[in-house]
Amino acid sequence: MEPYAYRENLESILAFTGQRATLTIGEAAQYLGVTDTRTVRRRCPKTFVGGWGTAATFARELCDYWQREGRKRK
Predict the structure, then answer these.
(1) Structural domain containing residue 44
(2) Using CA atoms, how far apart are residues 52 and 10, in angstroms rounded to an integer?
(3) Average pLDDT, stretch 26-44?
(4) Residue 1 within any structural domain of the chain
(5) Which of 2, 22, 29, 55 makes a 20 to 30 Å CA pair with 49?
(6) What average pLDDT score do residues 51-73 get?
(7) If 0-12 CB within 10 Å is exposed, 13-18 middle and 19+ buried, where does residue 29 land?
(8) What's the whole-model pTM score?
């Protein structure tokens, strides 16, 4: 089953990267608007191995992260 907002996240990430399927952890930090890449590693621990990750995995982990955080806030 596809996570909620996965396709929207993926389209947004691909537009940000110029349709590239891979991105660096630094680019992910820019996408999220954070300056510290450790924040990205905490939010998406499975995506960036060796500093690189795929847009699809990043989009999926963002969905998972927001679902986890949403449950904590309720």
Answers:
(1) 6-73
(2) 16
(3) 92
(4) no
(5) 2
(6) 83
(7) middle
(8) 0.83
